[in-house]
Write a structure and sequence with these properties.
The chain is mainly α and about 270 residues long. The protein contains 10 helices and no strands.
C-alpha cells in the first residue's frame, strides 16, 4: 500500500462535474422514488419503451453493431491503428486492466444473461428470422443472437466508446474525460462545458447507472433464488439489497486496492 497515490481523491474531486453528477444521480433517484410511490406506472412506462424499441429498432441494433465491428477491424489493419492516446505510460498493468474489464464490466451480465438470453430467443425468436418458437431452427438462432450480444460485438461496442472518448481526452488540450468529449468535432472544445454537453453527460450517467444497477439486480435475485432452491433460504427483497450492497462494497475496495498498487505498471 506504500505505492498509493495520496492525491488520488483530490484529483477525483477536481475532475468531478458537480452539475452532471447531481442531475444524473438525481434523475436516477427520482425514478427509484417514483417506483416506490407508483410501481405500476414505472413498470408500464418501461414496458412501453421496451416494446417500442424491440419492434421498431431491432434491425438498427444489428446493423449499427455490425458496422462498429467492421470499423474496428479497419482500425486494426489500417493506418489509424497506430495512433496512440497521449504520451504517458499506462496507469494500470495489462493484468489489472483485464481483471477490471471482465470482473466489473462483463461478468455480472454474462452470468445472468448468457444462458437466459438463449432461452428467451429460443422461446420467442426475433421476427427478423422466419422460425417458430421452440423449434429446432430456433435453437441455432438463439445461440447466434446470444453470441452476438456476449462475444465480439459486445466488446466492440465498449471499445468504440472508449476510443471516441479517449482520443480527444488524451490527444487534445482541455478536453475532459466524459461521454460528451466524443462529440468534440461537433460541439467544439469551447462548448464542452456548455448546456448541450451537460445534457449528454447527464443522460450518459443515468444510462450507465441504470445499466449497472440492472445487471447487479439480476445477479442479486439470481443468487437469492439459488439459496432458496438449494437450501430453502428465503431472504426476499432484503436479501437482494444485501447482496447488491455487498457487491458494490467489494467492487469499491477492489478499485481502491488496484489504485493503491498502481505503481506496478507495464506497457499495454
Amino acid at each position: 500500500m506504500s505505492n498509493a497515490d495520496p492525491g488520488a481523491f483530490g484529483r477525483f474531486r477536481e475532475e468531478l462535474d458537480v452539475v452532471v453528477f447531481l442531475f444524473g444521480a438525481g434523475l436516477t433517484v427520482g425514478v427509484i422514488a417514483t417506483f416506490f410511490v407508483s410501481p405500476g406506472t414505472v413498470e408500464a412506462a418501461i414496458a412501453y419503451l421496451n416494446t417500442g424499441m424491440n419492434r421498431y429498432l431491432n434491425w438498427a441494433l444489428l446493423v449499427i453493431v455490425f458496422l462498429i465491428v467492421l470499423f474496428l477491424l479497419f482500425l486494426i489493419v489500417g493506418p489509424w491503428g497506430k495512433i496512440t492516446f497521449g504520451d504517458d505510460p499506462p496507469e494500470y498493468s495489462f493484468l489489472s486492466f483485464f481483471a477490471m474489464l471482465y470482473s466489473a464490466g462483463f461478468a455480472a451480465g454474462v452470468v445472468f444473461w448468457g444462458p437466459t438470453e438463449a432461452l428467451f430467443y429460443y422461446a420467442e425468436p426475433s421476427p427478423l428470422f422466419d422460425v417458430s418458437g421452440g423449434s429446432a431452427g430456433a435453437m441455432s438462432i438463439a445461440v447466434q443472437q446470444t453470441l452476438f450480444h456476449w462475444a465480439l460485438p459486445q466488446l466492440a461496442v465498449f471499445t468504440i466508446m472508449g476510443i471516441a472518448i479517449g482520443y480527444f481526452a488524451y490527444n487534445y488540450e482541455n478536453v475532459p474525460l466524459r461521454v460528451s468529449s466524443a462529440l468534440t468535432p461537433l460541439l467544439g472544445r469551447e462548448n464542452l462545458d456548455g448546456p448541450a454537453a451537460k445534457v449528454i453527460d447527464i443522460l450518459a450517467v443515468f444510462a450507465t447507472i441504470g445499466g449497472v444497477a440492472t445487471s447487479l439486480g439480476f445477479i442479486g435475485s439470481q443468487f437469492i433464488s439459488g439459496l432458496s432452491f438449494q437450501w430453502g433460504i428465503d431472504l426476499g427483497n432484503t436479501g437482494i439489497l444485501v447482496v447488491v450492497t455487498t457487491m458494490t462494497l467489494l467492487f469499491t475496495v477492489s478499485m481502491a486496492l488496484i489504485r493503491g498498487f498502481g505503481g506496478f505498471r507495464t506497457s499495454i
